[in-house]
Amino acid sequence: MQRINSFAASIAALMFIGIAFCSCGNTTPDDMRQAYLLQDQAKVTDTPNEKTDPISYFVQECVNITLSGIKTDKLKYFSKEKNDTILIIVKVGDMKGIEKSSRKELLYAVEDCLKAADSLNKKKIYIDVEGRFNTLLVKSPVKSDLNGKYADSDLILPFYGKSVIPNKAAK
Known about the structure:
Layout: H1 2-24, H2 32-41, H3 54-66, E1 75-82, E2 85-92, H4 100-116, E3 124-130, E4 135-139, E5 144-145
Parallel strand pairs: 2-3
Antiparallel strand pairs: 1-2, 3-4, 4-5
Helix pairs in contact: 3-4
């Protein structure tokens, strides 16, 4: 009887390890919009090309001129345009060097630059400000998260379309 109990315990342990291993292996987001956002966040650069990413190029030049108190040479940009919407991602290398109260100024400067351009001011704007490890500030046409420390990046997802996950509330 003792032999059966140790055999059953061994089988149970192996099943637990197998289940834990299989559940940890899936790193693909359930919502593909999150994967699209992660891909776009990886495309930021400190030297946007005027021909391939004219919006980022324009915003970088505008922010460099209009914003003071932040080392703008450390900012990286990427933008994407879809129909009547624009997504601009700004990555800040060292947000600790910027006071929490001043962090919003970066987002507002980006927004003001986009609104100042005649060809862009009628578009719906999504702004994502990324830190080294997390999303810091988010502004969408519907809602903003301007805490300056941890922002809800899900507010950007509607830029990529509606969720295709059944029973998931539209964000």
